[in-house]
Design brief:
The complex is a heterodimer of chains A (114) and B (113).
Chain A: E1 5-7, E2 10-13, E3 19-24, E4 31-38, E5 42-50, E6 53-57, E7 64-68, E8 74-78, E9 87-97, E10 100-105, E11 109-113
Parallel strand pairs in A: 2-11
Antiparallel strand pairs in A: 1-3, 3-8, 4-5, 4-9, 5-6, 7-8, 9-10, 9-11
Chain B: E1 9-13, E2 18-23, E3 31-38, E4 45-50, E5 55-56, E6 61-64, E7 70-75, E8 84-92, E9 107-112
Parallel strand pairs in B: 1-9
Antiparallel strand pairs in B: 2-7, 3-4, 3-8, 5-6, 6-7, 8-9
Classes of the chains: A mainly beta (114), B mainly beta (113).
């Protein structure tokens, strides 16, 4: 099976712009989660989508939003970019294994805001 | 969510076993213990998980204390490719937070040739 794919891999944007990142989960996985990774804060959960509905949300401002399509592909959007949004954005899809879940991560999108 | 505590860094020699400890004294009965690792310039990778019994897979072994307040990830023969940040994470299977992982700072493992 193909792994989780994310596009684009690298992106440079200017403050005030908006950006859309894309994630394709592993075939058959219906849950997609997004994380932000920075040197200062580490890996932080942004949100999770399941069957086109947001199921969980982390502690991020409303400028960060996402959606999921009927084929489980997901996008996240960041509006009015700030310098502090420069980070590695990771997408993961989940599969149930018994009572628990395993998450499989993509390679990430490296966003640089100038 | 219950918290985990890991050493910031550890060193190992290549081809020797590595024991990565994790303390989780506030673990609840429905918390599964998960380990992920992140190799340089890659996304995190699932390693192993367990509830009460020790678990083995092709990547590693997970030893869980009888009181479940601590666990140890065991890499039987470390290779240079095992140099990564290792995260110990608790997942409560009774909650709806199925797609949410709370990452701590993890343990940075350095493997020396």
């Amino acid at each position: 099976k193909a792994g989780v794919t994310q596009t684009p891999r690298y992106l440079i944007k200017t403050r005030g712009q908006q950006v859309t990142l894309s994630c394709s989960p592993i075939s058959g996985h219906r849950s997609v989660s997004w994380y932000q990774q920075t040197p200062g804060q580490g890996l932080q959960f942004l949100f999770e989508y399941f069957s086109e509905t947001q199921r969980n949300k982390g502690n991020f401002p409303g400028r960060f939003s996402g959606r999921q399509f009927s084929n489980s592909r997901s996008e996240m959007n960041v509006s009015t970019l700030e310098l502090g949004d420069s980070a590695l954005y990771l997408c993961a899809s989940s599969v149930r294994t018994g009572p628990s879940y395993e998450q499989y991560f993509g390679p990430g999108t490296r966003l640089t805001v100038t | 969510d219950a918290k985990t505590t890991q050493p910031n860094s550890m060193e190992s020699n290549e081809e020797e076993p590595v024991h990565l400890p994790c303390n989780h004294s506030t673990i609840s009965g429905t918390d599964y213990i998960h380990w992920y690792r992140q190799l340089p310039s890659q996304g995190p990778e699932y390693v192993i998980h367990g509830l009460t019994s020790n678990v083995n897979n092709r990547m590693a072994s997970l030893a869980i204390a009888e009181d479940r307040k601590s666990s140890t990830l065991i890499l039987h023969r470390a290779t240079l490719r095992d140099a990564a940040v290792y995260y110990c994470i608790l997942r409560d299977v009774s909650s709806s937070n199925t797609g949410k992982l709370i990452f701590g700072q993890g343990t940075t493992l350095q493997v020396k040739p």
